[in-house]
Amino acid sequence: MQIAGSRVKYFPVANISQVPEGQAVHLNVNGRALLLCQVEGQFYAVSAICPHAGQKLYGGRLQGWEVVCPLHRARFDVRNGACTAAPAAEALHSFPVLLEAGKVSIGMS
Ligand code: FES
């Protein structure tokens, strides 16, 4: 699906019920590794590759709004991808999420 006037194309990736509250689900969408997360009823999508040294971020339980890199423990806010704890300095790429008819779609340009 593509929204008129936008270059972002949305890919349907999951049913809402497949992403439990407080969890991150690992997905491969259009060749990119992503985490789809639900926190306090809102859905967020971020890259699943840590910008520090390329470690794959695991799915599973989040710590509040944060995902923690398993290699050197950098932390990222899934709401916008911002790095909140070193040693990483760059943010994760974040992607727009669309909820429609019980389905979750992730936007990519
Ligand atoms: S690879 Fe993620 S903090 Fe180093």
Defining key terms:
109 residues; mainly beta; five-stranded antiparallel beta sheet; globular; binds FE2/S2 (inorganic) cluster
Please characterize this protein's 3D structure.
The protein is mostly beta strands. It has one domain: Rieske Iron-sulfur Protein (3-layer Sandwich), CATH 2.102.10.10. It is built from no helices and eleven strands. The strands form three sheets. A five-stranded antiparallel β-sheet has the order 5-2-3-4-9, with no helix packed on it. A three-stranded antiparallel β-sheet has the order 1-11-10, with no helix packed on it. A three-stranded antiparallel β-sheet has the order 6-7-8, with no helix packed on it. The protein is globular, with a radius of gyration of 13 Å. The chain starts with 8 loop residues before the first strand and ends with a strand. The relative contact order is 0.25. The model has no long low-confidence stretch (mean pLDDT 94). The structure holds FE2/S2 (inorganic) cluster.
